[in-house]
Amino acid sequence: MDNIDVLLSKASYMSSDKAIEYYNEIIDLYPDDFRAWYEKGCLLLNANLDDDAIECYNEAIKLNQNEYYIWYKKGYVLANDKGGFFDAIECFDEAIKLNPNDYEVWNEKGKVLEYIGLYEDAIECFDKAVKLNPKNNEILYNKRDALETVGLYEDAIECYKEVIRSNPNNYEVLYEIGCDLSYGGYTKFQVIEYFDEAIKCWDKAIKLNPSDYRAWENKGEILCLFDNGGSEYYEKAIKCYDEAIRLGSTAYRGRAFAKFHLQDYAGAIEDYNKALEICPLFTDDNCCITAYEKLGDYEGAKMMKEKIEIAIKEYIMVNKDLPPF
After folding, report:
1. Is the pTM higher than 0.85?
2. Could you read off the pLDDT of 141-169 as tens digits, one per residue?
């Protein structure tokens, strides 16, 4: 008979279904060895059989309480699939006692603590995880979320910066961070540093991939969104929208918004009409109608209001099966 190491090695090359059956045979042959229980539990976890996986991890722990990764896996299932947050924390604590140098355990414990509202404790866990793996984007994003929740925006920005430092030439990472900085909620726009970092991020993204209109469009949008920008920012926004549209974007609504705030009402009306043709739901009817009124064209304002209402009704009728915006 092969020894258990040979049997476990054979199982690792099998399909999941066959391997589970094979682990049962190994358990019958070697009932006091925890490894088959653990490996079987991992396969059951991958198959979304969480209750069965927990049973296997429990059996493995009965046979060997000194392997941290069994506690970690049990905690992972409890936290992510079973909703047993406090039991999961106990498992993670046991794993940390046995091995305090695994960043994944600290990260998972931090996620659970954040979920149940213990943000400061969660941040401490994420700090531990970052020290163990300083270039892991997931941990930095988790830490950022917790910091933002408690209002520590400057510390959260450092998490963004660290991700960028680790991925200076990764366009998709820069694009993702740019979107998060730009559209993370009104609270962020109370912090000038978020606006500054978003602009820097879009500039870097544009430098890496100047032919992607999305980055130009997003930079234009945040320039318009920032409350205290003034005319200089709207002028910069129009240049971004010009380039985005040249590259294939349909960002006429955004450009119209910038033109409106620069009092180029005729230009704003022209772009609003183009936006209306593309999708009436994306038309800023208040600014559009006001642009007519600013030019003294009250009849035009009335006709535009009716035009928008009709276009929206027609659009909804044609696209009634689409989810609401």
Report:
1. no
2. 999 999 989 988 889 889 989 999 988 89
What sign does the CA torsion over 216, 217, 222, 223 have?
positive
Q: Is the dihedral of CA 176, 180, 183, 189 positive or negative?
A: negative
Distance CA 59, CA 46 (A): 18
Categorise residue 263: left if φ over 0, alpha if ψ from -120 to 50, beta otherwise.
left
Q: In sequence order, what are the residues at sequence separation of 6 or more whose Cβ sits closer than 8 angstroms to the Cβ of residue 135?
A: 166
Q: Do the beta carbons of residue 294 and residue 261 sit within 8 Å?
A: no
Cα–Cα distance measured from residue 198 to residue 218, given in angstroms and rounded to the nearest whole number: 10
- Say how far apart CA 6 and CA 41 lie, in whole Å: 19
Rg of the Cα trace of the chain?
28
Total residue length of the chain:
325
- Give 94's Cβ-side CA count (13 Å radius): 20
**Token representation of residue 73:** 């896996």
> Which of 50, 44, 74, 51 has its CA nearest to residue 62?
74
Six token digits for residue 176: 């993702």
What tokens does 266 get? 């005729």
